[in-house]
Amino acid sequence: MFFVDKVANYRIYDAEGKPAKGKYAELFEHHYNELIKLPQYQELAVFAVDKLHDGYFSADKKGVLKDTNGSTQADDDTYAKIMRNKEQLLSMDEPLKFIFSHSALREGWDNPNVFQICVLREVGSTKERRQTLGRGLRLPVNSEGERVKDDSINKLTVIARESYADFAAGLQKEYEDDCGVTFGKVPKIAFSKLSVVVDEEEKPLGRKASEDVWSELVSKGFVDTNGKIQPAFNPSKEGFSLGLSEQFAEQEAEIITVLQSYQLERHIKKDEEPKRLKINKQIFLDPEFENLWNTIKHRTTYQVDYSTATLIANAIKSITEMEKIEAVKVSYREDIVGIEKKGVTTTNTKANEIKIEYTGILPDILAYLQKETELTRATLVKILSGCNRIAEFAINPQKFMDAVASIINRELHKLMIDSIKYEKLTTGQVEWSMQLFREEELKDYFEQCLQVQKSVYNTVIYDSEVERRFAEELDKREDIKLFVKLPAFFKVETPIGTYNPDWAIIKHYDETIYLVRETKSTKNFEKLRNSEADKIKCGRKHFEAIGANFDVVTSSIEV
After folding, report:
1. Could you give the angle at the alpha carbon of 23 between the alpha carbons of 29 and 8, nearest 5°?
2. What confidence score (pLDDT) does residue 392 get?
3. Cα dihedral sign for 115, 120, 122, 125?
4. In whole angstroms, what is the distance from residue 9 CA to residue 471 CA?
């Protein structure tokens, strides 16, 4: 969403009253046409640029758009139009992706999928600031209209005309004064969702352990007793470590990442020229890099060989042991409310619970499971017949079908991953070309990055504190000739999606060693049964098939 200072900057009219593009509309189309030609945006080139943007402004009786203050009858007409079309705006088939507006859209407009707000005018009053920002502070929805609670998606980017630091500080002060919240304060439960491996299962750290981590951080001076991050917390300092107890040492990198998320300055990016990856020609043209690339460039094909009988037996066992499927329950309370001098009181509180029995026509469970698992009806019949849980299907059909489909897919993936075999494609077939590095060089980057000397590019883009430390340490080691963060185009095919390994490395130790390494915060990662761990297991078998040295490491010391 763009909030503009004048309607005329987006839409102008000639002497005959015909509409034409204003300077903002022309600038938008000019820059969009430049960006859409870049390789990383090719798949987005679906609609014509003039269909991608439009303005929601009030109009006079002749239909001419005009500036308003957001509280006129013309504004009401505009908002009514938006309300009528809001479901259409959420459709994937709707080309409109960029909306220009003059006044802050009021409560009537409730489109949840706003991810960027660009403020091209002064935002003065407290109310207007909150209304403007509030357009993006909604949980987005998917194509089915369901709320999406993925933190990697739920991000709002605000491009503010005034200094963003001032803009953010002003909003924070307003919320702190009115709501009593404190920004930048690390709560004691901040680390409760971090993962820990227990008996080959991934489990959350939990509330108690999170509070213990928080107490250690306070005792070491990284956080004060109010949860405010202190200057002692400086991960960019050479040799920096939290020095946590052995119990939490494996989670240090993840804990640092959580702490960084509470630092406001990390979420502010200054207006500057876009940075680009630049190839380090000395490294790129080095014969040793070519030798490394010739070692890992080969593609493979895979096949899986599992027993249907084993799948049926495993699925039956897991479905038999799953949690009981129960009817939908509605809980409510009844209270008698009284208003007295001391305030509002409640008495005779009574808790109630109602079970809602399913009474509709039962759906075609075999057709549903076939669609979700791609197994034959005969296989599915054997699984359902053997689990002795089919009676629960009538209690809550959708929950039962979803639970069963999830279990079958999980057991299927286990068998596929455990039995997968990769075969190197013969010379002359498709391989990853070194020239793809030059295409990557064209891409702008805006994420976390580290200047290095021994890599193919002048900069390494990292996704986590583990990766940053790994690259920093490799760049300083004398026995490391060169290393590269493998680009996004380097993908190994697996039954559960593609796998992009982390690093390719040349090490001099008596002899030249070519390595591929995956960086994780724990060595126990491959023991887990989740999609990321399973992809890495497939990656290991791929590199075994082409004769490349692959392993998972937690730090550069293990290289």
Report:
1. 125
2. 92
3. negative
4. 47
Could you tell me the two tokens for 170? 């002003």
The sign of the dihedral angle between the CA atoms of 472, 478, 480, 483 is positive
| Phi, psi at 458, each rounded to 5° | -70, -15
The two three-digit tokens of residue 417, written as one number: 């991953």
CATH architecture of the domain with residue range 275-301+425-558: 3-Layer(aba) Sandwich (3.40)
CA distance 370 to 350: 45
Per the structure block, which two tokens stand in for 543?
A: 């590199």
Q: What is the pTM of this model?
A: 0.63
Closest alpha carbon to 182 in 269, 265, 260, 262: 262
Question: Encoding tokens for residue 17?
Answer: 């009253």
In degrees, rounded to 5, the angle at the alpha carbon of residue 280 between the alpha carbons of residues 276 and 284 is 125
* Terminal-to-terminal C-alpha distance of the chain: 47
Q: How far is CA 174 from CA 123, 233, 269, in A?
A: 14, 27, 22
Per-block average pLDDT, block size 10, for the chain (559 residues)? 85 79 91 84 86 72 50 48 62 82 58 82 66 74 78 80 67 72 82 75 83 93 90 82 86 85 71 71 91 92 93 95 89 82 74 84 93 93 94 92 93 92 80 78 62 89 83 92 90 91 91 89 67 89 94 87
- What pLDDT, on the 0 to 100 scale, is given for residue 104? 47
3-class DSSP state of 483: strand
Closest to 265 measured CA to CA, from 223, 239, 232, 229: 229
263 CB neighbour count, 10 Å cutoff: 13
| DSSP per-residue letters across 232-249 | T--TTSTT------GGGG
Number of H helices, E strands in the chain: 16, 25
Directed axis angle between helix 207-219 and helix 252-261, to 10°? 80
- Using only the alpha carbons of the chain, give its radius of gyration: 29
Residue 209 near residue 244, CB atoms below 8 Å: no
Region(s) of the chain under CATH 3.40.1350: 275-301+425-558
Distance, in Å, from the CA atom of 299 to the CA atom of 94, rounded to the nearest integer, reads 38
Specify whether the CB–CB gap between 160 and 120 falls below 8 A.
Answer: no
Residues 18 and 2: their CA atoms lie apart, in Å, by: 23
CA distances from 259 to 165, 205, 265, 515 (A): 20, 16, 12, 32
Phi/psi of residue 166, each to 5°? -65, -40
Closest CA to 484 of 495, 496, 475: 475
